[in-house]
Amino acid sequence: MTAKLEVRHLTKIFGRRIPRAEELLKAGKSKAEILKSAGATVGVNDANFEVNDGEIFVIMGLSGSGKSTMIRMINRLIEPTSGEVLIDGENLTSLNKKQLLDVRRNKMSMVFQNFALFPNRTIIDNTAYGLEIKGVDKDERLKKSHDALELVGLHGYDNQYPTQLSGGMQQRVGLARALANNSEILLMDEAFSALDPLNRKDMQDELLDLQENLHKTIVFISHDLNEALRIGDRIMIMKDGEIVQTGTPEEILTQPADDYVERFIEDVDRTKVLTASNVMIRPTFVNIDKDGPRIAMRRMVENEISSVYVVNNKREFIGVVDASHVMSLIKKKERKLDSVIQKNVPTTSPDTPITDIMDTISSTPIPYAVVDDQNHLLGIIIRGAVLGAISGNEVGEDE
Amino acid sequence: MNNIPQLPVSSWIDKFVDWLASFEGFFNAVTNFIGGIINGFQWIFDLLPIWLFMLLVVGCTYWLNRKTKHWTLIGFEIVGLLYIWNQGFWRDMTQTLTLVLTSSLIALVIGVPLGIWMGKSKVFETINKPILDFMQTMPAFVYLIPAVAFFGIGMVPGVIASVIFAMPPTIRMTNLGIRQVPADLIEAADSYGSTSWQKLFKVQLPLAKSTLMAGVNQSMMLSLSMVVIASMIGAMGLGNKVYFAVGRNDAGGGFAAGLAIVILAIILDRITQAINRSKIPKS
């Protein structure tokens, strides 16, 4: 992965006595102290991060955390006080006015929280805005805009005005306006926050679908952790203008950097985020090619369980045997387990979200077997581990 | 108190006016230019037969209100214009209309750019606000004196005095309109790489249009209120009729001409308001 967008030591201070505030900041004074003695507000303090080509990077935080300031410094709607923003290695903060216009016109497009559609323009003219100011000729820009509207699922609204559309549809136009421009980077500022929950979910799905084909580099601002976990390839959590933690959704959930992040993730619907691999435990198994009923029995007694999983020499999953059947084999002095193996065991892949297997887990007594593409047994999922994971306790073999 | 000498404000201003008068060439050029506009309007109105003029006014009203069909307004216009013709005020009415249109046009051409500048610059707004207050609150008669000094008597100084008095609403409302454009739309325009001019013509002015036009409407009404005052320095028209009626204590004649001004005002007001009505459907 290559970094499309790099942010280095980016700082924004609002107010009048900025040099004084910068000194205080360097001396390690807190936000409140700086506000008191210099009358300046620290919006973002020394932010460093990279966004990889083709990933959805979610910047998360509550209001006042500096996330909106951050995204606006990326396209310099807000001038950074210090630091650098690099796109493909080019430093944006040193560009002159004309170069900056070029970057805004060709490299990145922004989607806004309250849609920011121009009420005096029709849907198609709104969508074509970016192309229009670039000087693309009329036929071409109308065609491109029409395609972009089709892409976001808006047919036949070309000549309506924004006020005639619902919120969800307006934001589709907002997204189409950004897509029509065909820039590689999308900046999405709380793009779905103004939508009702159902619409929001639709739009998130839509964005993920689009992203599969378009592979844009997306910086997405959100205050909703569920949203962040759902769409983010990586998430950066901000608090009071500082970065608290950057990581994949799983890392955020399983290894919260501090109390703040922990409090954040308390309310998350974990079933949607955690996958089979997060909750599976190490299975007890026997090798059918080498182990007989007595070994199987001993494994069960050792581990105080009533069934054991069966694999072959290549660790390919075959089935499960339970204690009563194994017991009868021992009585009959059989040497092979084959005759009593139950093969109707539910299996799943490690990437399956728990929410998809919840139903089966709750209705069948046999634990799920987690297998990879080659049918190798990776682990099993027992009910207790699932409940533990959902309630936020650590699970899994490594912890 | 008696020991403090009186500030020579009036002599300062006299000196300033005398100094300004030395730019005679400039003022002559302005006089000729404005005179040209006035003559142009007057030439057109003199050329139009009364029936065609009425047809234009009614047609214009009908077309601008084609969705709502203001039949009462159209009826009023016909009756009103017939009254003016019947009273023998037709030429006076067109002269007044010329004065109003000329000063509104000049107020628009000067006022809108100034308003835009104010809308974009906090400093310019701070400087200009007290000047606009001054222009509007200074009794309008006072403008007549230097206007005569620089532009002689007749229609031109009347137009100049009207412009000074009537322009502030256009400037103020343009400024307001530009500032009222929602911040996120400005951000959107900026984020897609608009230049200042693109932002102005594609976003700010279209969105400020209705506020701006309300200002133009105000300016027009204010310049109409100047017609009687302007007649004191020789501007022709309905104002002149009222002014003479005052001099002769002729209540009947005064009201007859005053009523014609009211009719003209209502017609102008309704037409400019209809132009302003938005095409964009409300949600």
From TrEMBL, chain A:
Please state the Enzyme Commission number of this protein: 7.6.2.9
- Cite the SMART domains for this sequence: AAA (SM00382), CBS (SM00116)
Topology versus the membrane? Peripheral membrane protein
Record's Pfam families? ABC_tran, CBS
Tell me if NADP is a UniProt keyword of this record: no
Q: Where in the cell is it found?
A: Cell inner membrane
Q: What protein name applies here?
A: Quaternary amine transport ATP-binding protein
Automatic annotation (TrEMBL), chain B:
Task: Please give the GO cellular component terms listed in this UniProt entry.
Answer: ATP-binding cassette (ABC) transporter complex
Protein's membrane topology: Multi-pass membrane protein
Against InterPro entries, the record matches this protein to: MetI-like, MetI-like_sf
Domain ABC transmembrane type-1 intervals? 93-272
Q: Which residues cross the membrane?
A: 43-64, 96-119, 140-167, 220-239, 251-268
Quote any Pfam family the record assigns.
BPD_transp_1
Please report the name of this protein according to its UniProt entry.
Glycine/betaine ABC transporter permease
| Entry's family note | Belongs to the binding-protein-dependent transport system permease family.
Q: Which UniProt keywords apply?
A: Cell membrane, Membrane, Transmembrane, Transmembrane helix, Transport
Q: Which GO BP terms sit in this record?
A: choline transport; glycine betaine transport
UniProt-recorded Gene Ontology molecular function terms: amine transmembrane transporter activity; carnitine transmembrane transporter activity
Where it sits in the cell: the answer is:
Cell membrane; Membrane
